[in-house]
Amino acid sequence: MSYPVVEGSRLHVSRLGSAAPLVVALVFAPLASLAGQAACPAPAGLTGGASQPEATVRYLADDALEGRLAGSPGAHCAALYVADRFREAGLEPGGTGGYLQTVPLASAVNPHAPGGTGVNVVGVLPGSDPALAGQAIVIGAHLDHLGRGPFGSLSPERAGEIHNGADDNASGVAALVLVARRLAAGPHPGRTVVFVAFTGEEIGLLGSSFYVQHPSVPLDSTVAMLNMDMVGRLGHDRLIVYGVGTSPQWSDLVADADLSPGLELAYQQAGFGPSDHTSFYGKGVPVLHFFTNLHQDYHRPSDDWQQIDFPGIIRVAELVAGIASRVADRPERLTVVQGVGHRPEAGEGGGYGAYLGTVPDFTFTEPGVRLGGVTGGSPADRAGLRTGDVMIGFGDGEISDLYALTAALRSHAPGDTVAITVLRDGTEVRVTAVLGDRARDRQ
């Protein structure tokens, strides 16, 4: 997530017993020429015999894949792994070469985009209703992460270390695999369901932007998009659901599908946001984005698989599968509501400019920005800001939401001294912060 602040054997490896080494070679060999490397690591060597969703997270977030930077050998290995999971689930290939869709990685708005090409992974579950099968739901999660942190890391002092991105977003891909297995195992939904693991999200939503220009099912026949990005830290049973305002039917559909006891859903209206659903909403497709909130390991080398809530991923996947089934089988299309939320500008977010060092709490729905965390040693920490503070003023301006705070930071330079007003236990508190430099000072 980018917040501001393969062809081969169709045989299933799990069913082959002693033939597994041969099939691993068949499935993973095509990547050697694609990625310019000798071979991808076999899943059995990295997953420790774990079942899903843990197996997917452990494979994708292993050091052997070096952080899955878009276009890198590790990212290609990750793509081939997901393609094999789609194949096992019984999905049909939906890419330009089997399950893979080649994506150019050059970017006009991000000078840090690596160039060359990456791949989306696309699997298709054909619809079962002749009257609806020509329409599709897209369910997606981004596959890439930051590699060794050359851009986007919140720990620049640890440049060169592998950023494994277990929560961001191996967790979402693991949930995607579970949803694919769930929907393919039962009676197929009426509408076609397209599953996509996107490349290039971290460098500008490049994979999803390419997909909406080259969709497996025409975009005007795409009735909804469900996006899972960072769903591995469910923790206190609270799941944030963005995009509820993009269709008047969403609230009832989500509530109807919420069969998990004790799961609290925090609804957010906005359809635009710093993840792949934005590419679809910008084209008039109703969207939902599922998210378990930020944390102190976000975009840092410490985002590892050992901290993932695997039962939580299962709960998220069950909810998403339930929503997808309901959307796929309803006779009518969803009604789209346009323009809900702030559309990110070209180049918004990223890794440079003035830095404060706060982690927003995305479950907060009142005016202001509640702090879900404060980075130790950061300008915010030195100024005395605390977790739970609600920021309502920054410099001469009011802070109504995260976008206002982002704009305020972008209007200042490193070294500026600013007055910040927060609500702390209902009382206004005013502090002074000296802003740091994103590229040098983040901890």
Regions with little confidence, pLDDT below 50 for 5+ residues: 4-36, 346-352
Our count of helices gives 12
User: What would CATH call the architecture of the largest domain?
Assistant: 3-Layer(aba) Sandwich
How many strands, what sense, and barrel or not for the largest sheet? 9 strands, mixed
Beta content: 15-25%
Look at the structure and give the CATH class of the largest domain: Alpha Beta
Overall geometry comes to globular
Mean pLDDT: 87
CATH level 4 superfamily of the largest domain? Zn peptidases
User: How far is the first residue's CA from the last residue's CA?
Assistant: 19 Å
Structural class: alpha+beta
Order of helical and strand elements: HHHHEEEEHEHEEHEHEHEEEHEEHEEEH
Key structural traits:
443 residues, alpha+beta, Pdz3 Domain, nine-stranded mixed beta sheet
Q: Would you write up a description of this structure?
A:
The chain is 28% helix and 20% strand. With 443 residues, it is α+β, with helices and mostly antiparallel strands. It has two domains: 13-329, Aminopeptidase; 354-441, Pdz3 Domain, CATH 2.30.42.10. Strands 1, 2, 3, 4, 5, 6, 7, 8 and 9 form a nine-stranded mixed beta sheet that branches. Strands 11, 12, 13, 14, 15 and 16 form a six-stranded antiparallel beta sheet that branches. A two-stranded antiparallel ribbon has the order 10-17. A hairpin with a 2-residue loop joins strand 13 (390-394) and strand 14. Helix 4 runs parallel beside helix 5 (166-185) and helix 7 packs across helix 9 (310-329). It starts with 19 loop residues before the first helix and ends with a helix.
